[in-house]
Design brief:
This protein is of the alpha+beta class. The chain contains four helices and six strands.
């Protein structure tokens, strides 16, 4: 597996494991199962390339947007965050300021997008740009071969 960019914070991530697991770290147990804190030896979805993550999401019937937001760090998924539209000018001004503060400027890419909203639904990962929707994800720039 290829690691995603940025520091990994092992010990801050956790997962459910069977009650027979003996290596729970700082985890604990419930009635029928245990949870454990992750170490550098554990496979983590944050280490998956987007194509592999979305394949797994599809096989599980999961939402691609939610899977990406839960797997990657904010700088990578900030283009997946959507702000609601309003007729209230103050609301729109606050959202505009928030977008600017978070660096949510439109993302430019050269291939045809699925929809004409280049600033939304974008995931950046190691030079790749993905257009991501709940049930579909397409690499549109810097795609792996």
């Amino acid at each position: 597996m290829t690691k995603s960019p940025g520091k990994r914070r092992y010990g801050y991530s956790w997962c459910y494991v069977s009650k027979s697991c003996s290596e729970v770290g700082h985890g604990g147990k419930t009635t029928n199962l245990k949870w454990k804190t992750c170490t550098h030896q554990d496979k983590m979805v944050s280490n998956l390339e987007p194509g592999d993550l979305f394949d797994m999401s599809s096989k599980q019937g999961s939402d691609n947007l939610m899977m990406a937001k839960m797997s990657y760090e904010f700088p990578q998924v900030k283009g997946l965050i959507q702000f609601s539209q309003s007729n209230d000018p103050i609301h729109n001004w606050i959202q505009s300021a928030a977008r600017e503060h978070l660096g949510l400027a439109p993302v430019e890419f050269s291939k045809q997008a699925l929809r004409k909203m280049p600033s939304e639904h974008t995931l950046k990962y190691n030079g790749q740009i993905w257009e991501v929707y709940a049930n579909k994800a397409v690499c549109v720039e810097g795609c792996p071969i």
